[in-house]
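User: Sequence in, structure out. Go.
Assistant: Echoing your sequence, followed by the structure tokens.
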Amino acid sequence: MTTAPHDDLDDVYLWDPETPPSAEVRAVERRLAPLRFEPEATPLDWTRAGAFVVRRRRPTWLYALAAAAVLVVAVGSLAAWRWSWPAGRPWPIDAAPAGAARSLAVGAALDLPATDRMHLRVARIGTMQIDGDTRLTLRSTQGTRHRLTLDRGTVHVRVWAPPGSLSFQTPAGEVIDLGCEFDLTADGVRSVVRVRSGWVQLDNSLDESLVPAGAMSEMRADRVPGVAVFEDASPDFMAAVRALEAGAADGDVLRRIIVAARPRDVYTLLMLVERGEFGSDLLARRAADLWPPPAGVTVGAILRGNRDALWQWRDTLPLPPPKSWLRNWRDALPSWFADRR
């Protein structure tokens, strides 16, 4: 009877321990026998073993922190790119009539016929739609400082950038974006702005006016810019406010303002009081009825010219914080996507 070679016996032994192994394997097993694990003599504590594994696992918050760090770096890099427009580079025109220029160069006046419309990019910080019969000139462009002149016409602007990055010089004064979306119309005599998000500042040699989202205002060169009036205010309220600003020191005009004012219109009332318009005492008391001032602020202090008290009162109103353009992050999204929202 022929005996199988040692290697063959050992292979069989690996799969069938009942098969006798070679002498060499038996010798190794005898040497290792003292190290054999006996479950009955030394049972495993699986609870402690599991706890050990849990302690070794990386906390979830570490992954969240790492993801947040990556997001911050990505957002910061995107912002730096958006605000790094080279000085003097023309703005790309995305949509224009056939035969029109494909970019808006510095110093070149754009005269758009009444039947045409144009859409262009405001450097990398936003977009602008230009309606027909508009004359527009890009005076300068660099980084986060872009300056234009609007002689006449209407533009719809949507930007996301630090306050003051974009401004328009109009015949009536300067219109300064504070990081928002707005419509601006100039007709050579007055400029009218309607704010869709954020704030816009109107500024001429006489004074300035801050206009929040949902409100509109107008500016003429021969008078201070109008106070903001919300577009959903009653037509009679809006007309009476403009009449008062135009110098109508009339009891009937004042009565119309007081009767038509809503809590939402308190911002308008306070701005009229700040300017010392006719009937400021009645306007301030009506504002207090509609939206009581905070503790420590009195109507008397406001009427004595305490502007800090007036702005403390204003800060309690449900308005977007002035110049807080970061909160309008949706303005950084493409307009086609934002419109779907």
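User: And one key feature?
Assistant: Residues 234-319 form one domain.
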